[in-house]
Amino acid sequence: MTRIVCVGAHPDDVEIGMGATVAKFAAEGHEVTLIDLTDGEPTPQGTHETRMLEAARAARSLGAMRRTLDLPNRYLFDTVEARTTLAEVLRETRPDVVFAPYPQDAHPDHIAAASIVDAARFYAKFTKTAMRGEPHYPTRIYRYMAVHLRLVREPSFVVDVSDHLDAKLIALRCYESQFESNTANAGIIDMMKATAEMWGRTIGTSAGEPFFAAEPVGLRTFDALL
Description:
Elements: E1 3-8, H1 13-27, E2 31-36, H2 48-62, E3 65-68, H3 80-93, E4 97-101, H4 108-123, E5 140-144, E6 157-160, H5 165-173, H6 188-202, E7 208-211
Helix pairs in contact: 1-5, 2-5, 3-4, 5-6
């Protein structure tokens, strides 16, 4: 079993960027924890209570655990306080792998979240510190894309999520306040389905999700290659 942490600036970020992969990991028996840095509020149709209920339902539908931190939505910055808040969670959850937002985005919170994750991963290994928990350094960090820009980037790898795309769409529909009640976002779920199908075609499957690595991705054998 691999311990996996997926960090987003807001509830629904991870589901948008890699919800099907989360469902795949959970189905394979891995321990997956979703961490929202903020509650994502205020939004036009949401409340804190509504978002927390929606986020909990979405995580359950994917087979994942979830934690929502109390950093400020819309005013998320890469500060020492934000770094140590997340680092303490990493020291507690002790993931082998961390997934973080793609660092180039139009949304300032997403950009800040990407930086916070990088720094928190490093802070989590400190030995002489007032932070709670024992030192821990996640071995791998990868990026998922859930951006507000029309970006097409060549990924480091694409995960075959053909058997789990429906789980992603179910999780996204849990966020009724964000997608069904907010007419401005009404087409996002259909777009996510089409995007996954497009990435699937690039690897010869019916659905895929792309990921990005700053370091080389190694293979022990060719068995996992499509």
